[in-house]
Design goal:
The protein is mainly alpha-helical. It has one domain: Non-ribosomal Peptide Synthetase Peptidyl Carrier Protein, Chain A (Orthogonal Bundle). The chain is 73% helix and 5% strand. It contains four helices and two strands. It has a two-stranded antiparallel ribbon with strand order 1-2. The protein starts with a helix and ends with a helix.
């Protein structure tokens, strides 16, 4: 139990949980974007087609038995959703990497510059120069 408590209380687990929750809702937002914003105009451009209605009926519904169909239109919507999410994540990761590269370069520049001499060093340098004269 101690090991489990240590594992669960780590910051990485909490960060992962927050990331998972945000990803879930981000996925819902993108799905809505695709289904409610992207697909209607696309369907209109293709002659008023609604992709979610595309299906191949294998067996018609009979009484209480529902129809058996391959809903390839919904599959097309999901592919477009996947591509949209992938592109958004690609852009976010690219921006994150650029930011991290800039911060790393700034840290390297600061670390590479030698610190200015201290007051003692400057006084000692003056004394040395005076003694040389």
């Amino acid at each position: 139990m101690k090991e489990f408590k240590k594992f669960i209380s780590r910051g990485n687990v909490v960060d992962l949980a927050v990331g998972l929750i945000l990803a879930t809702y981000f996925g819902a937002i993108v799905k809505s974007l695709v289904n409610d914003v992207v697909m209607p105009p696309l369907g209109m451009l293709l002659g008023g087609v609604d992709f979610s209605d595309f299906k191949i009926v294998i067996k018609e519904s009979q009484g209480d038995v529902a129809e058996v169909a391959i809903n390839y239109g919904i599959f097309i919507n999901n592919i477009i959703t996947f591509l949209t999410v992938s592109f958004a994540i690609f852009i976010a990761v690219k921006m994150y990497n650029k930011t991290m590269d800039r911060l790393t370069k700034q840290e390297e520049t600061v670390a590479a510059a030698p610190p200015p001499p201290s007051k003692e060093e400057m006084l000692l340098t003056e004394i040395r120069d005076l003694l040389k004269k």
